[in-house]
Design a protein that fits this description.
Layout: H1 2-31, H2 37-41, H3 47-99, H4 120-132, E1 138-145, E2 169-174, E3 179-191, E4 197-210, E5 224-230, E6 235-238, H5 247-254, H6 267-273
Helix pairs in contact: 5-6
Length: 285
C-alpha cells in the first residue's frame, strides 16, 4: 500500500516539473529569449508620443466637428421649415373648404389700404380665430402684442446684425414649437422720380416663423423666415418678388447683394426653389 502511494507521488512530481519546464520554455520563446514576457510588454508611450497623438486628434476634430454641426443644423432647419410650411398651408386649404376661396374671405380691402387706416389687432385676431385656430394645432397662444412682451422677450435681426423694427404681431407657437407671428405686410405702391415712397400701404398677411422658437440666433435666413397670404387671390407661400423669375435673382437677394433689407426675406423662397435644401452657395455662415 505504501509502495503504491510513493509511485503516485513520484508520478505527480514528475508531471509538475515537466509542466513548469514547458511553460518556462514557451515564456522565453514569446519574450524573445533574454527578457520575460512581462518586462517586454510593460513599456508604454512616451509623453511626446501622447502629446503628438492628442494634437493630431485635436486638429482633425477642429476641422470636422464644425462642418458636422453646421450640416446637422441646416438639415434640422429645413426639416422644421418644411414642416411648418406644410402645417400652415394645409390649414389655409382646410379653411377654404369651410369658408370658400381666400378671395371671398372679405380681406381684399387690406391691399393698398394706407398704413394707419386699419386696426391690425382686430383684423389679425379675427383672422387667427376664424381661419387658423380651427385647423391647426398650437401649443401656446400669446395674442396680439409687441414681441418684447412675450414670455421670453423676442427680437430678430438681418444677417448684417441690424435689428429689425419690432412691431406688434399676433403670436402663437405651433405643436412643433415653431414660433409664428402674423401681421399685416406693408409696401410702397407709388414712388417719385427720386425713389421716395409716395403711397405706403398694406399688401398682405404675413407669417413670420422662427423654426427654433425663442432660441438664438433669431436671424432672417438662418432660423427666421417669412411666408405670406395674398388676400386678393388663392395664394399662400414664401415671401417673393413678382419681378424675380430666376434662382440667381433669389440667391443674390438672400445674400443681400440687391435691393434693401427686405430682400433677406426671400431666403425661404430660395430654399423652396432648391427642393427644400440649403445648398453650398446659400449664405449660411
Amino acid at each position: 500500500m505504501i509502495f503504491i502511494v510513493k509511485i503516485k507521488i513520484n508520478w505527480y512530481n514528475k508531471n509538475i516539473k515537466k509542466r513548469r519546464k514547458v511553460w518556462k520554455i514557451k515564456s522565453l520563446e514569446m519574450s524573445g529569449g533574454g527578457t520575460t514576457l512581462l518586462s517586454r510588454y510593460s513599456k508604454g508611450f512616451t509623453l511626446a508620443e501622447v502629446l503628438i497623438t492628442l494634437g493630431i486628434i485635436g486638429i482633425v476634430a477642429a476641422m470636422t466637428i464644425p462642418t458636422l454641426i453646421s450640416n446637422y443644423t441646416k438639415k434640422e432647419t429645413v426639416s422644421k421649415l418644411k414642416q411648418s410650411y406644410s402645417i400652415l398651408a394645409q390649414a389655409i386649404t382646410r379653411a377654404q373648404v369651410d369658408n370658400g376661396d381666400i378671395s371671398n374671405w372679405g380681406l381684399a380691402y387690406i391691399y393698398e389700404s394706407s398704413v394707419g387706416s386699419l386696426d391690425p389687432k382686430e383684423i389679425l385676431t379675427n383672422f387667427f380665430n376664424t381661419y387658423l385656430k380651427p385647423y391647426v394645432k398650437v401649443s401656446e397662444v400669446y395674442g396680439y402684442k409687441n414681441p418684447i412682451l412675450l414670455p421670453r422677450p423676442y427680437s430678430h435681426s438681418i444677417p448684417n446684425d441690424t435689428v429689425v423694427r419690432q412691431s406688434a404681431l399676433y403670436w402663437f407657437t405651433l405643436s412643433n414649437n415653431v414660433l409664428v407671428g402674423i401681421g399685416l405686410g406693408t409696401g410702397c405702391f407709388e414712388r417719385d422720380n427720386d425713389g421716395n415712397c409716395l403711397k405706403h400701404g398694406y399688401t398682405n398677411i404675413m407669417f413670420k416663423t422662427d423654426v427654433n422658437g425663442f432660441n438664438s440666433p433669431n436671424i432672417i435666413g438662418k432660423d427666421v423666415f417669412l411666408m405670406t397670404l395674398d388676400v386678393r387671390a388663392n395664394k399662400f407661400g414664401f415671401y417673393q418678388y413678382s419681378s424675380y423669375t430666376s434662382r440667381n435673382q433669389y440667391l443674390r437677394a438672400c445674400r443681400g447683394e440687391v435691393g434693401d433689407d427686405d430682400v433677406y426675406n426671400l431666403c425661404g423662397q430660395l430654399i423652396f426653389l432648391d427642393g427644400w435644401e440649403i445648398k453650398d452657395d446659400y449664405p449660411w455662415l
